[in-house]
Design a protein that fits this description.
With 452 residues, this protein is of the alpha/beta class. The chain is built from 15 helices and 15 strands.
């Protein structure tokens, strides 16, 4: 049996895009289809996919995700066909659609269509102009920021629900608050911060791919656009510290929401943080189904929907092994880690370095994630407790604000203390009754909260 509620990232135009983002790992997938002249998913494949996907979902809600490449290159009429076919096979189920786009082609026609059919739109944007345009350029190497912002303006004008996807790279990772504050000002209520990590080889795959998977044993180097591990962790920490003070319940960040699930003891809703994977696949324009969007390689092809039933491919031994391998190949260093419950080794795509004891398969971003998850621990424990007590997790902002005022009073009191008893073991001048080192003299806000 296939996993319940499996997900497919559908690429109805394959890797074809009107941009030429310097860090994009998917553009080179064009090499997998060297004889293709027509990149749009044809009507027969589209209908076969939609009908089988709806039938395979056990719940009354069915979620389609359309990506690329750039799916808006297909034009509005392609997606009118999508809606028509979905209605034909819905069978009483509720259908939802999400579209991931670079936003540059969104005009009034698109805005009207997306609003009418209640699409959730994800817009790829990497921060303010100078950060976004550093890598996200078009085929002529021209900047794209203004075009993306015009697209966002059209979405707002037509009241289309949208969120933002920010690729965290070597450049913008240095400016976390500039990125975060820009996205808030742009109207993003939900933000995804996706780390870009790629290895490049001078010995291409037989199919012409140079951005290789972690199992590649030849010579390869991390690309110069990939985010650095500790920097990525600090990027998340800096944004979290701003969010925890001002924006809980007002702006939503995927990493923070998923972390709270883990602190509540729930299964992470994001595949990269689950114990096992395999329930999120990718389908190319031809109907080829692959194990994962990050593993579109010939060896990870499960079959084609015109030749093999979708449920059969999803439930195949090949796909089950792919999913179990995430857990089965976890290094001992990860298995013994205190934040394993939240991380679970993250995405297998990034597991290509060795652990301190020499075991292969450690995640390249390990140092960053350990920094991030340890930093947020006291706040997550508080918010989880609030939820379990039937209260709003946003109450953490009041606690954090109170701790800040608490420390401020203590600092002023210490400054005015003339000859009184002081030091880390002295009673805290704020009057809390705790020692200074356990209260306002603590090195982190978590200590001031009394939660470490």
């Amino acid at each position: 049996m296939p996993p319940s509620g499996f997900h497919i990232m559908t690429k109805p135009i394959g890797p074809i895009c009107n941009l030429d983002c310097k860090y994009c790992f998917y553009l080179e997938k064009e090499n997998l289809y060297p004889h293709t002249k027509q990149w749009a998913m044809n009507g027969d494949v589209l209908e076969s996919y939609i009908s089988q996907f709806i039938a395979a979902q056990p719940s009354e809600r069915v979620d389609f995700a359309w990506q690329g490449g750039e799916p808006t290159l297909l034009g509005v009429n392609f997606f009118r066909d999508v809606i028509r076919i979905q209605k034909k096979y819905a069978g009483g189920k509720t259908i939802h659609n999400a579209l991931q786009t670079n936003g540059t082609l969104i005009d009034d026609e698109w805005g009207s269509f997306l609003a009418e059919h209640h699409f959730l739109v994800g817009v790829s944007i990497d921060g303010p102009r100078e950060l976004h345009d550093y890598y996200r350029v078009d085929k002529g190497n021209a900047p794209t920021f203004d075009r993306v912002m015009r697209g966002i303006a059209r979405l707002k004008q037509h009241n289309v629900d949208f969120n933002t996807l920010t690729v965290v790279n070597r450049r913008n990772s240095q400016f976390p608050l500039e990125v975060y504050n820009f996205l808030k000002e742009a109207g993003s209520g939900f933000m995804q911060f996706i780390p870009i990590v790629e290895r490049k080889t001078s010995d291409p795959h037989p199919d012409g791919l140079v951005l290789i998977q972690p199992s590649f044993e030849g010579g390869a180097e991390v690309t110069d656009w990939s985010v650095e591990p500790r920097v990525y962790g600090e990027f998340l920490v800096r944004i979290f510290d701003e969010w925890i003070r001002h924006d809980v319940g007002r702006h939503f960040v995927q990493h923070f929401d998923v972390a709270l699930e883990s602190w509540l003891g729930l299964e992470a809703s994001l595949c990269v943080f689950r114990r096992t994977c395999g329930s999120a696949m990718a389908m190319e324009h031809t109907g080829d189904l692959y194990s994962c969007d990050h593993f579109v390689y010939p060896e990870n092809k499960l079959g084609n929907i015109t030749e093999t039933a979708l449920q059969q491919m999803v439930a195949s031994a090949q796909q089950k092994k792919f999913g179990r391998d995430k857990l089965d190949t976890l290094p001992r260093y990860c298995r013994e880690c205190t934040v394993r419950f939240a991380c679970n080794g993250e995405c297998p795509k990034h597991r290509f370095i060795t652990s301190p004891d020499g075991e292969p398969g450690l995640n390249y971003l390990c140092a960053g994630y350990k920094h991030f998850f340890n930093h947020i621990d006291p706040y997550m424990r508080f918010m989880a407790a609030e939820l379990q007590a039937g209260r709003a997790p946003a109450n953490v902002m009041q606690l954090v604000a109170g701790a800040g005022e608490h420390r401020g009073r203590a600092s002023r009191s210490v400054a005015s203390n003339e000859g009184g008893r002081s030091g880390p073991n002295a009673p805290c001048p704020c009057g809390s009754g705790r020692k200074t080192k356990k209260c306002c003299g603590a090195p982190a806000l978590g200590d001031a909260l009394g939660m470490r």
